[in-house]
TrEMBL record:
<dbReference type="InterPro" id="IPR050811">
    <property type="entry name" value="Phosphate_ABC_transporter"/>
</dbReference>
<protein>
    <submittedName>
        <fullName>Phosphate ABC transporter substrate-binding protein</fullName>
    </submittedName>
</protein>
<dbReference type="Pfam" id="PF12849">
    <property type="entry name" value="PBP_like_2"/>
</dbReference>
<keyword id="KW-0732">Signal</keyword>
<feature type="domain" description="PBP">
    <location>
        <begin position="109"/>
        <end position="313"/>
    </location>
</feature>
<dbReference type="InterPro" id="IPR024370">
    <property type="entry name" value="PBP_domain"/>
</dbReference>
Amino acid sequence: MEYSEEIVRSVESLPPYSPRSNYSGVLRHFGVSLADMVPRWEEGFRFFHPGAQFEDDLCKASGIIGVIAGTADLGASGRESVLTEFLSFGEKVKRMPAEIAVATGALDVAGGSYGLAVFVHESNPITGLTVEQLDGIFGAERTGGFDEIRWNPHVARDASEDIRVWGQLGLDDPWTDAPIQTYGFAQTGMTTFFERVVFRGGRKWNPNYREYVEAGSKQASPGAPTTKDMMAALAEDPYGIALAGLYHANGVDGVKALPLAPRGGDVYYVPDMGSFGRREYPLARNVYLVVDTGAEGEQAEGVREYLRYVLSRDGQRAILDQGVYFPLPEKIIREELAKLD
C-alpha cells in the first residue's frame, strides 16, 4: 500500500525515540507476527539497544496466553481480548493486563485486523448510519455490558431503542414497514470488536442476525455458509444490512458500503485511507501488544522501553515500510504511552 502524504507527514511529526535507559537482556514475544511487524520492531529496537535479544513464539495463538503463563513479556494480538482471557489474567497475575494499541489495523487486507464496513443493497436510499443506530439495528435490549471483567449496568438499554424496520431510520415507502434483515460474522474477533465498540461490552444481538464464517478460514467447515455466501445473499436482499470487510465486496455487484458517524457525532466518514489514518472512521481497529504494566524490575522496564520505541516516530515509521497497517495518530499514541507510567 502506498500511504498518502498526510499519513507520512503525521508520522514524521511524532517525537523521535529517545532511550531512557540502556536495555540489555531478552524480551519474549508470544502470539502472532502482526503481519511481520514484530520482527521489524525488534530490528529497530536493537539499533538503539545492541544488547537486546528476542525470543519469539509466534505460533498464531492468542498473545495474552503467553503473558498469563509467564512465558512471554509481550502478547502480540490482532484482536481485542475476551472475557475469559481477562478473567484468566486476573486469577493468575492478580491484576488486569494492559492492551497497548501499537497500530491501526488494515483497510482491506484479509487477515490484517481490517476495519468493519457496513453494507446494504445498492437500491437502499440510506446515506449513512451512526454508531447508536448500529446498536439499535444489530443489538437488542440488554441490562449491561462487560468492561474487562466488570459488569457495567450503565450501558443498559431497553427494547424501545431497537431499530427493526427501515422506516425507523426515516425511509419512506416501500421501505417504511420493511423488516431490517441483519447479516454478519459468526463469533470471532470481528464480533468481539463490534460488541465492545457498538454494544459497549454487551453480547445480545438482533434475533434475526444471520451468521457466516470467514471464507477460506479454518472455521469454514464443509457446507458452512461463508462471507462469500453472505455478500451474494445481500446482493439479492433490498432490505438487508451486513457487517463485513471492504474486500468481501470485491467482485460483488449490487451492494454498497455506508458512511458511519462515531458515537455522539454527526459527521459521517467513508471507510478509506484518510478516515483510517486519522482514526475518524468509528469501526477502524487496533492491533495490540498485551503486557503486564504492574510488573517491576529490570525486565519490566525493558518491556516499557521497547513499547516506547514502538510508539515513537521510529517505531511507527516502520509501519510505512510494512504497507498493511496504519500508524497511530499522535493523540492515541499519547493515550497508550500514559498506560506505561
